[in-house]
Amino acid sequence: MSPDQPACPDRQDDLRVDVRPLGADGRHLVTAVGALDLHTAQHLADAAQPLLLTGGHTVLLDLSGVMFMDSTGLTCLIAAYRTARSTGARLVLIAPSERVRTMLALTGADQVLHSCPTVESVPD
Fold first, then answer.
1. pTM (2 d.p.)
2. Domain 30-116 has what CATH class?
3. Phi-psi region of 100 (alpha: psi -120 to 50; beta: other; left: phi over 0)
4. Residues lower than pLDDT 50 in the chain
5. Rama region for 108: left / alpha / beta (φ>0; ψ in -120 to 50; rest)
């Protein structure tokens, strides 16, 4: 591997996060696109944690565009789950990418992090 070739060729070096309210019922869609890793996990936490700290909110975390996730990204998701659990908020992963699903399954996190294939399929 040459020095100017990335270790993971399809990994992006940034994470774009978009937050959008869904109606007046306290539901928010947080969409993440890129790499969820040591360098970017705080960006996702900064967007999701304030919503989760307000009990009663539902945060739908769209991970369909996350093409790389390391242990720091997984820790960020677990921290979001713990915050939601402690405040009475709700966290649902939406359409996690294949790489995210694999990481969740390998670590057993898929047993506690609830996911749905689409925003519309999330039960009320």
1. 0.86
2. alpha beta
3. alpha
4. 1-12
5. left
